[in-house]
Every structure is written in structure tokens, then in C-alpha cells.
Amino acid sequence: MANNHNNYKTVYAFAREMHPKTEKFDVQYGTAGFRAKANTLGYVMYRMGLLAVLRARYKKACIGAMITASHNPEPDNGVKLIDPCGEMLEQSWEAWATKFANVADDRLEEVITEIVTELGIEMTQRVEILVGKDTRPSSPSLAKALCDGVLALSGKPIDYGIVTTPQLHYFVYCRNSRNQYGFPTEEYYYRKLCDAFKKIRGKNFNTNNYQSKLYYDGANGVGAKKIKYFQECLGDSLMIDRFNDELIGTGKLNYMCGADYVKTKQAFPNGVPKEVGQRCCSVDGDADRLMYYYLDENEKCHLLDGDRIAILIAEYLKGLVEDTGFDVNLGLVQTAYANGASTEYITNTLNIPVSFVCTGVKYLHHEAQKYDIGVYFEANGHGTVIFKKEFKEKLQTSYDDPTVSVEVKRAIKKLQTVIDLINETVGDALSDMLLVETILHSKGWSIQDWEKTYTDLPNRLMKVSVKDRNTITTTNAERTCLKPEGLQKEIDMIVKKYKSGRSFVRPSGTEDLVRVYAEAASKDEADQLALEVALKVHEMAEGIGPEPKL
Ligand code: 16G
Ligand code: MG
């Protein structure tokens, strides 16, 4: 223990001299970790380095730390920790993260002693922390602060440089699975995904209405850099035209481009050529979200979002599984933001069960783990598929069984190759893109064919600033508002007036405001419904600033 005590002293000295707590306000580890203006985050990074070492020792495994603010503007940054199997940090540790970030410099050692004692953490292990960062100019110095924290507690930082968020999740899992899930290198990652893609695609690159040409918007972020490696590996099996990759486009990260811009503005991004009917996709600043879209003759942008991607994948997998003859429990996980038409289609046309959870990847991921094959997507384009270990083992056993027919073996192999194409640890825009391209190719579909499967209900998002967003509480996977009392009743009354109307409100986890979602039979009605509900929130939840307007 004496030894450890010395370590903690170093922690304080480092903190005081190199990464002193500069901000008086408290920060909170939210759905996406810490996120703020980059120049306020030095000490937070240092402390997350400390916490990562403690988490790694507690789990006796390596832990990841990703420095990114995803789709936020370039001056922002953030950090999130990645757990041993590549998942988000366990929820009970979010409170520790918040505590670590906010305590005064001279009380840091005390908090370390507290967590070590409370959880019985052995402080002698040498643990590895995998560090990744996005392309923001602030990321290198913040990564240095984080590594200082790791070193202060005698951990070993392993710097992966600039990588996408899902790549780092993948590396963490590979390392902890002792390479069972693959090797924790970028080269292996590209090869694994591209080999699977090329194997399924075969020699015919264009099929019926499917043309292999794709426009890709890299949001001027890490996704713009990494797509180049994919292009090298894929050769002419997929013709990707790159845009918004610093050299071609506006140059500014996430500025009027990227998956979040396309989704929230429901608009075509800057920097991508406006070619009628051309299939395009956008990723966000750290490449964990994906959006597809195209422009019609009237320059209207048609969006194919996370809901569409989820349905495309779920239906395809259902078919593949049927070919193997296995009886599999396949399900889909959505949030309240999923378009009502998508839920209706999955349930009634595809007969695939749907569960609803709160917004935030960790909730979707955990729910999806309950199925043999769990497909999860947020409407914003973040999602993946998880396959139960037992199911994968069953596939292999059957494949190795000499009594199983050649047809079934072929179906199993195909499913296994599709599994290889998927990053199961977290939503991965690049792996998802390859999967979508694979499915469209196998169906011989254009993006317009894909869109025809069902018609989205027009919808509208609005924001309301209130004195304290936490006065709004919700239940029923955020679809019902509990507080302020009476608000849900009012919403119900407003919704009743609109054909196919649905609306809900929730406090944002990443911004200091309340979000309002509304959908209805027409665009005007959806706008009007959102406005009525937003005005009600403003009235009943102590709105600040001017009243919401369309
Ligand atoms: C974060 C979440 C995302 C969610 C979004 C909602 C992760 C990794 N990311 O970006 O899943 O959709 O927050 O933001 O969990 P909001 O709470 O501000 O609406
Ligand atoms: Mg992101």
C-alpha cells in the first residue's frame, strides 16, 4: 500500500504542475462521455487517463480511450472510455468518471483511494490503455494529457494515432479476446472487412438496377482519411468517389456536411456533386454514423436513415438464416426516434419483433444482446448487428458436420462471411456501408428501389431551451413524459388532433435543452404538431428565451 501511496502523490504533483483543474463548473459523463470546448478539457483528459488505468485493473483487461467530439463543431472535443469487450463504459462507472472530473486537484488522491478501497482494485498490475483520436487540431495535446494520466498511475498507454471510434472499439475487443475476434491492427481490420466484401460480391459488380458507383462524404474527418485504405483494398469491386476529405470540399470538419448535418437538416451536404438519382452516403466526424440519400429531379433530398438501414439488414439476415434452416431468435432494437412507418413495416410486413429502449448506444447494444441475432440502429444512423456466441458456434459445428448438405453449408458460409463484414462491438459507418452495398448488390436494387419498401411519415425535430432540462423526466423508453406533471396529458390532447400523429419530448443528453419530436400524415402537420408541443414545453417547463417558432 505504501508504494501505491507514492503513486498517488505523483498523481497530484502531475495534476498541479501540468494539468491543473482550470474550470469551476462541473461536467458530466453523459451518453457520449465528456464533451465540451476543447480548451477546457486538459484536466478532464488527465483524470480520464487515471480512471482508465483503474478500470483496466478492476476488469483485469485493457481499456480504450477515444478522443473525439463526433459530429460536433471543430472547436469542441471529448473523451469516452471503452470497456473490455469493446462496449461503452459500464453505467455504474459513469458516476466515478463524473466524480473524477470534478474533484479539486488536491483531493484527487483521496478519490483514488476511495475507489480502490471500495472496489478492492489491485494496484500492482501493469495494464494497457489503447488511445485513439479523431482529426481535430486539439486532439494530439488532449491525447498527451490523457497519456500523462495513464503514466501517473503506472499504466501503459498504447497510442493508435488517428482512428475512427469503431476501429478503437474493435481493437480493444481484439486485444482482450486474445485475437479470437481478429488482430488489433488497422491493416487486419481493412483486410478482414474488404476480403469478406469481395468474397460475397463475386465478379459481377453491377446487378440489375444496382450500380457499383457510390458518392461518399467523409465530413472532413477521420472517415475521409480511412476510406482511402478501403479504396485500395476494394479495388474496382466498389467505385467510391470521395468528397469532403479536406482537399475536395469545404475543408471544415462537420461543417455543412456529414451524417448528422444530412439527418438533422434533412438536406444534401455541401461539397458533394448534385447529380440527380446518384446514390450517396455520409459518415459523421468519427465515422460511427452513416446516412444514405439521393437528389430527385426537383432537387429534393431523399434520406435513407438508420431505420431504413436496420430494416434492410434485418430482412437480409432473416433470409440468410432461413437458407441455413436454423431456428433463430432475430430481433430489432429501436428508439422513440424511429419513424412510426418503419416500426409498422418491421412488425407487420417482416414479422420481426421490435423492442424499444432509451436513446444512447449502450441501451440499444444491451437490448440487442438478448437476441441470437440482434440488429440495432438509431434513426441518426448509428447501429450494428450482434450475434450470440452460441449461435456462431452452432453455425461452425453444423458446417463441420459431414452429414450436413452442401446447400446448407453454402448458406452457412455466406452467413459467416456476412458476420465477418460486421463490426459487432459498436456502430461502424464504414462496415455498415459495406454491408448496405452488399445487400443492395445482392438484391439488384437502386437506392430508389430501396426507398420504395415503405413510406416514411413526415417528421420534425425541435429544440426548446428551458431553465433546467432535468425538470423533464420520462418513462416507457422516453415515449411518455412523467414530469412536469400534466405535460403528457397536454401532449396527448394535441397529438389527437393530427392524423397519424405522434410526439414525445425528452431532455437532451448532449446539449442543455429539451428535444421535441413529432410525426404526422403530412409535412405541414408534422411541423405544426412539433410547434404546438414545443410551445407547451416552453410554457410548462419554464422555457427561457423567445417562444419556439417554426
Ligand atoms: C450521443 C449518443 C447517441 C445519441 C445522441 C443523442 C452514443 C455513443 N452516442 O451522441 O447514441 O443518439 O447522443 O443525443 O451513445 P441527445 O441526447 O442530445 O439527443
Ligand atoms: Mg459519431
Structure description:
- This protein is α/β, with parallel strands linked by helices.
- The protein has 4 domains: 5-162, Alpha-D-Glucose-1,6-Bisphosphate, Chain A, domain 3, CATH 3.40.120; 187-306, Alpha-D-Glucose-1,6-Bisphosphate, Chain A, domain 3 (3-Layer(aba) Sandwich), CATH 3.40.120; 321-427, 3-Layer(aba) Sandwich (Alpha-D-Glucose-1,6-Bisphosphate, Chain A, domain 3); 459-540, TATA-Binding Protein (2-Layer Sandwich), CATH 3.30.310.50.
- Helix content is 42%, strand content 17%.
- The strands form 5 sheets. Strands 1-3-2-4-5 form a 5-stranded mixed β-sheet, sandwiched between helices. It has a 5-stranded mixed β-sheet with strand order 7-6-8-9-10. Strands 12-11-13-14 form a 4-stranded mixed β-sheet, sandwiched between helices.
- The termini are far apart.
- 50% of the residues are buried.
- The structure holds 2-acetamido-2-deoxy-6-O-phosphono-alpha-D-glucopyranose and magnesium ion (MG).
- Magnesium ion binds at residues 70-71, 284, 286, 288-289.
> Number of helical segments?
18
**CATH homologous superfamily caption of the largest domain:** Alpha-D-Glucose-1,6-Bisphosphate, subunit A, domain 3
* Largest sheet strand order: 1-3-2-4-5
CATH class membership of the largest domain: Alpha Beta
Indicate the structural class: alpha/beta
Beta-sheet strand percentage?
A: 15-25%
Regarding quaternary structure, what we see is single chain
Distance between the termini: 62 Å
Average of the residue pLDDT scores: 95
The CATH topology of the largest domain is what?
A: Alpha-D-Glucose-1,6-Bisphosphate, Chain A, domain 3
Radius of gyration: 24 Å
Ligand types: 2-acetamido-2-deoxy-6-O-phosphono-alpha-D-glucopyranose, magnesium ion
Low-confidence stretches: 1-6
What is the CATH architecture term of the largest domain? 3-Layer(aba) Sandwich
Number of domains: 4
Helix content: 40-55%
What's the number of extended β-strand segments?
19
Largest sheet: 5 strands, mixed
Inertia-based shape: globular
